[in-house]
Amino acid sequence: MRAFITGLAGPALTEAERSFVREAQPWGLIVFKRNIVDHDALCRLIADFRSAVGRDAPVLVDQEGGRVQRLGPPHWPLYPPAAAYGRLYERDRGDGVAAAALGGRLIAADLSGVGIDVDCAPIADLLVAEADSIIGDRAFGAEPKAVAAVAGALARGLIEGGVLPVVKHIPGHGRATADSHKKLPLVTTDRATLEATDFAAFRGLADLPMAMTAHVVFTAIDPLAPATASTAIVRDVIRGSIGYQGLLMSDDISMGALSGSLGERTRATLAAGCDVALHCNGDMTQMEAVAATAPLLEGEPGRRAAAALARRQSPAPVEVAAARNEFAALLRGVWEPAQGWG
Questions:
Q1: Residue 171 within any structural domain of the chain
Q2: Rounded to 5 degrees, what angle do the CA atoms 66, 72, 77 make?
Q3: Residue 62: Cβ-neighbour burial (10 angstroms; 0-12, 13-18, 19+)
Q4: Tell me, what CATH number does 169's domain have?
Q5: Closest by alpha carbon to 238, among 220, 215, 212?
Q6: Is 251 designated active site?
Q7: 14 is in which domain, residue-wise?
Q8: What is the pTM of this model?
Q9: Pairwise CA distance, residues 29 & 7, whole Å
């Protein structure tokens, strides 16, 4: 296995892609809407990928709910944005935690049903009024303890359903005043404030199996490199102050926030201390450049990857229809089920 996760171009594995994944041996696959037609086609794609790499490789997706949901109607239901759970938590903490856990469990039922076993959720980024809208209602709220409580509940629901969560975007994307898909955000907040707010939300989730970095520069700690490529951020903040010891993956290294060739981005990401580089767009030329640079997944990164996957479990039984009714009832007044629910 090599220390990267790959995307694919479309809803079926091409012969070129089959040869690539067989030879390059990415640690895992991430799927997007371009890869999804319906239940059966997605099952075939995932099975073909795992057959080509010759192992039960992890398959990831971004299934947060709200604006970021790759599986959706008419084949799968919509889920609320994180902000809905946060509003419910403000009204009743017990209901907020229960709804988030049940939401995670229902999402896991959808994902495990097609063979997806890793969800790039929950987000623990804080809601910050003056920041770019890229986070916005994807955040559970503005208060670190509340965010950690609700995000942790959703993560537990995913794990119970046989799906591993990836907490993101560590150590925090909430203050970014730019969309890192397009350009590199700079956060100039002092470290003491960051420790008490943004970083604190992740500190309460340090036991989760996987985390994804933020393509954000924190000038008080490293004025030059984004967290993804910053040894100081990975060593002193993520592994140090936050105490996160699980598998650390980058956000998508093809995003506009990063500079340099794909090989240079891969090298910088892994040299900074990320265990795995994530490349999403399915462009074969870029995929080959990432694969040519990514080393074997061994040593401490390999140990963390194995430990993360060891936490995969068979889904606990759930009566989906009843759980959906309970979920909708809990969220009544803060979010109403839409198309494809029930």
A1: yes
A2: 80
A3: buried
A4: 3.20.20.300
A5: 212
A6: yes
A7: 2-23+37-45+56-284+300-313+321-331
A8: 0.97
A9: 6
Would residue 32 count as lying in a domain? no
Per-residue pLDDT in tens (0 to 9) along the chain, 342 residues: 999 999 999 999 999 999 999 999 999 999 999 999 999 999 999 999 999 999 999 999 999 999 999 999 999 999 999 999 999 999 999 999 999 999 999 999 999 999 999 999 999 999 999 999 999 999 999 999 999 999 999 999 999 999 999 999 999 999 999 999 999 999 999 999 999 999 999 999 999 999 999 999 999 999 999 999 999 999 999 999 999 999 999 999 999 999 999 999 999 999 999 999 999 999 999 999 999 999 999 999 999 999 999 999 999 999 999 999 999 999 999 998 764 455
Q: Is the dihedral of CA 118, 64, 158, 317 positive or negative?
A: negative
Query: How many C-beta neighbours within 10 Å does residue 9 have?
Result: 16
What residue has token string 């393509």? 215
Please state, in angstroms and rounded to a whole number, the distance separating the CA atoms of residues 284 and 289: 9
Annotated catalytic residue, options 117, 251, 252, 275: 251
Number of structural domains, the chain? 1
Strands 59-61 and 247-252: unpaired
295 inside domain? no
Q: How many helices (H) and strands (E) would you count in the chain?
A: 12, 12
Question: Is 51 a domain residue?
Answer: no
Q: Supply 249's token pair.
A: 């993956």
Which DSSP symbol is given to 316? Answer: P
> Do 9 and 17 contact (CB within 8 A), yes or no?
yes
Tokens coding 70: 């790759």
228-257 in b/e burial notation, b at 16+ Cβ within 10 A? bbbebbbeebbeebbebebbbbbbbbbbeb
Q: Which of 38, 56, 181, 190 is catalytic?
A: 181
